């Protein structure tokens, strides 16, 4: 039986970033391969290290510092990983949907897994780069980036959703929230498992099996919101496609460095909902 969430879209989530600030701004895009834009300033009283969890996505991240500004292309992590940031730092980011980012020709998806590349080389128009780095106006930053990104990639964007094998594999795993065997993908496409793995890794930098695990984890992450969810961990695990609760707990610890119960408590302690500001 397919999980109930089959038709739902996985929304890539980075909860630690929200909990480092009193105002985490988010603007959902769902166009041009972009999931959403976000911006935040690290709180002065934050003592925990910023961390990012696996989400299968690529981010363009701008560190808008007056002294040492920079911009990076950040690939997905395979486990909870630290992120550089100190109190007072302001970040503006773009999170792309899995497999939907248009990268510079010099950047290979494999190189971005648990790594990053300089974005300045990609942002050849320094005026646009400076406009984003020097601003604290979230909407203005979004518009500046969109104008640049769309204008520079018009032809590639027209083919972003082409029904080639790479797109099909990514979309099918995402649509099923990771609940599909690689052998089944081979049967659906008429290709060997070996070829499916090869094409997928060329597009995502990770294996389809790894992305399936990340997609299931992100489904759980989006399901854990309230204290009451502590009582429903088995149901949440089963709905996400795990065989049992212990399997889900093992992945969750690996990807967040905490248990689901501790994660729920951290949301409550940080008053997570009050920090997240979604713009229309």
TrEMBL record:
Keyword Transcription regulation belongs to the record: yes
SMART domains documented for this protein: HTH_ARAC
InterPro entries noted in UniProt: AraC_XylS_family_regulators, Cro/C1-type_HTH, Homeodomain-like_sf, HTH_AraC
Keyword field contains rRNA-binding: no
Domain HTH araC/xylS-type as annotated: residue spans: 163-266
UniProt keywords, alphabetically: DNA-binding, Transcription, Transcription regulation
Single GO MF annotation: DNA-binding transcription factor activity
Pfam families recorded: HTH_18 (PF12833)
SUPFAM superfamilies named in the record: Homeodomain-like (SSF46689)
Protein name: Transcriptional regulator, AraC family
